[in-house]
Amino acid sequence: MTTAREIMHAGAAWITRGVMLDRAAELMSEMNVGALPIADENERLCGILTDRDIVVECVAKGKDPRRTTAGELAHGTPRWIDADADVSDVMQEMESHQIRRLPVIENKRLVGMISEADLAHHLSEAQIAEWVDKIYSRAAT
Length: 141
What we know:
The model has no long low-confidence stretch (mean pLDDT 88). The chain has one domain (4-140): CBS-domain. The termini are far apart. The chain contains 6 helices and 7 strands. The protein is of the alpha/beta class. It comes from Streptomyces humicola. Keywords: CBS domain. Residues 8-65, 73-130 form the CBS domain. This is CBS domain-containing protein. InterPro entries: CBS_dom, CBS_dom_sf, Diverse_CBS-Domain.
């Protein structure tokens, strides 16, 4: 059984709710990532900020990214997976919620992230083809 821990990118960086969006964008650029988990004061996951969120929810709406915090864009309960979950559960979670990045949690703390690239590096071509078909065909409808 392959677990989330085995395919995740370990040591994922996170930001706090008070980080301004311009700084979050700089961090994404420096780390070459498209998303950063948002943690609360207890280092628990409370949201995920994507580069698209910054553009669509801040810049396109005329807000100033130097004065808008990550927490202002953290809505709802973020999806996540336990570090010991089977890869089939990882794929199901991502498929059913149409997400392309999934935080990995252990003992209520962020320990890594799983992205499409992580899946591509660790799964068979058949598994990836099936996952891509489910993610992208449903996203188009």
